[in-house]
Amino acid sequence: MKLKTGDIFTIPIDDARIGLGQIVNIPNKNNFIIIVFKNSYDKNKIPSLEEIVKSEVLFLGYTLDAKLYHKHWVIIGNYADNVASIPLPYFKLGTSPDVNIINYKGDFVRKAKQEEDKYIEYKTVTAPVEYELALKAYHNVVDWEEDFNSLLYKETLNSIKVVEGR
């Protein structure tokens, strides 16, 4: 299976509803960056790709292809026009006081200032099942777990604010 930036896929929520996600970057051959949209949809009434990408983003992060490979998540199309507008995260590398900031590709950006260290996370690759469970929790199918907070898109936006001063 050849995954592409812009691929949009389904994520099961329950017997009647699905969520939708999109591959927004493939920085290396081992993992890729996805977003998961906030809305849920009747699994028999999927909106157009153009409508989907206008939805609010709930989660963003690195993951693996297991759910796509085993067709638990099904690719329904490709739409890449929105991808360039999605801000991608920064991460920290190293331990205090020698912390560096890297971009989503792993490239060195600069040394972290002492106060930035606590606001920027280490890069992690999260199993796809974790995104699925977090989406189910968001839609009240299972309980919310504290670990899901790190997947929230607003956390990504915080790293960008800290590094870029936006």
Question: Any overview of this molecule?
Answer:
The chain is an alpha+beta fold and 166 residues long. The chain has one domain. The chain has four helices and nine strands; from the N terminus they run ββββαβαββββαα. The strands form two sheets. Strands 1, 2, 3, 4, 5 and 6 form a six-stranded antiparallel beta sheet that branches. It has a three-stranded antiparallel beta sheet with strand order 7-8-9. The protein is globular and about 50 Å long. The termini are far apart.
- End-to-end separation in angstroms reads 38 Å
What letter string, H or E per element, gives the SSE order? EEEEHEHEEEEHH
Largest sheet: 6 strands, antiparallel
Q: Beta-strand percentage?
A: 25-35%
Coarse shape: globular
Low-confidence parts, pLDDT < 50 over ≥5 residues? none
Radius of gyration: 16 Å
Structural class: alpha+beta
Quick summary:
This protein is α+β, with helices and mostly antiparallel strands and 166 residues long. The protein has 4 helices and 9 strands, in the order ββββαβαββββαα. It has one domain.
Primary descriptors:
alpha+beta, six-stranded antiparallel β-sheet, 4 helices, three-stranded antiparallel β-sheet, 166 residues
Task: Reconstruct the topology from this structure.
Blueprint: E1 7-12, E2 17-25, E3 32-37, E4 41-42, H1 49-52, E5 57-63, H2 66-69, E6 75-78, E7 90-93, E8 100-103, E9 108-111, H3 128-138, H4 153-164
Antiparallel strand pairs: 1-2, 1-6, 2-3, 2-4, 3-5, 7-8, 8-9
